[in-house]
Amino acid sequence: MRHLDLNFGGRPHAVGVYVVDTEDGLALFDCGPTSTLPTLEAGLAGHGLRIEDIRHLLLSHIHLDHAGAAGPLVRRHPGLTVWVSEIGAPHLVDPSRLERSARRLYGESFDTLWGELAPVPAENVRVAQGDVLGWESFPTVGHASHHISYFLNGTLLAGDAAGVRMPGASYVLPVSPPPDVDVEGWHATADAIRARNPERLALIHFGVHEDVDAHLDRLELELDRCAERVREGMEQQDFVDAARADAGVDADLYDRVAPFWQSWQGMKRYWEKRP
């Protein structure tokens, strides 16, 4: 497994993707946004690879920091097969709704942050269920309803299912943007991950972590802490201040990678939708 830092926004440890082996050649686990394609290409070249050497793209979910470059990649490499959840697949083929929503959220910064969002031809898209090229794919909801993870030989390609954790830090942020955060579902995901007894968690934000039990325990603790703060009426700025205190010396880095205000909005919507 080869880890590539995409230096999103010109900064290290923000978005990283992985090149992994499969039963049908090399695959990329998540691809980052189109704005980081030059860095992706350079990272592959550092391992003696070209984009055309990658046969498959395994997506955790369709958020732009994970899957935004899928369409441009397939346009560049028409033989690339893209694996995604059943829920996410239609949004790859027609990303217009996803783009409208993201442009409302990010406004004028959309193009600088993410770059082009292009459709993936339907013939390139496969639904990831069960065995995918020798990797076990399984639903890992909580962060998003369309999230899946992949497991093989002790390695969990976690996407955002195991949260955000900076190298060397102990704090785990259960990044919870709207619209479909699911606290109960996320606890079930943590149980599903534990049941597979992984030896390492490969995060997109950021890096590989091997203290799996401690990591998942911290994820669930922070998930409940975030949810309760919002349920009890904490307003956005107070929530951000509290989360920054929890993150400690790495607060700025966490906030750049996964802005705390988005988690407040996601949790607020979660509680508003509950009966």
Which descriptors would you attach to this protein?
six-stranded mixed sheet; alpha/beta
Protein described:
The chain has 275 residues and is α/β, with parallel strands linked by helices. Helices cover 39% and strands 19% of the residues. It contains eleven helices and twelve strands. It has helices spanning 37-46, 64-67, 70-76, 89-93, 96-106, 110-114, 183-195, 212-231, 236-247, 251-257, 260-273; strands at residues 2-5, 16-22, 25-29, 56-58, 81-84, 125-127, 130-132, 135-139, 148-152, 155-159, 200-203, 207-209. Strands 1-2-3-4-5-6 form a six-stranded mixed β-sheet. Strands 7-8-9-10-11-12 form a six-stranded mixed β-sheet, with no helix packed on it. Helix 1 links the parallel strand 3 and strand 4 (56-58). Helix 7 (183-195) runs antiparallel to helix 8 (212-231), helix 9 packs across helix 10 and helix 9 (236-247) packs across helix 11. The longest helix is centred in the last third of the chain and has 20 residues, at 212-231. It is globular. The termini are far apart. The mean pLDDT is 96.
Total number of strands:
12
Low-confidence stretches: none
The average pLDDT score comes to 96
Q: Which structural class is indicated by helix and strand composition?
A: alpha/beta
Number of helical segments with 4 or more residues: 11
Counting copies of identical and different chains, the oligomeric state is: single chain
Biggest sheet strand order reads 1-2-3-4-5-6
Helical content band = 25-40%
Order of helices and strands: EEEHEHHEHHHEEEEEHEEHHHH
Bulk shape: globular
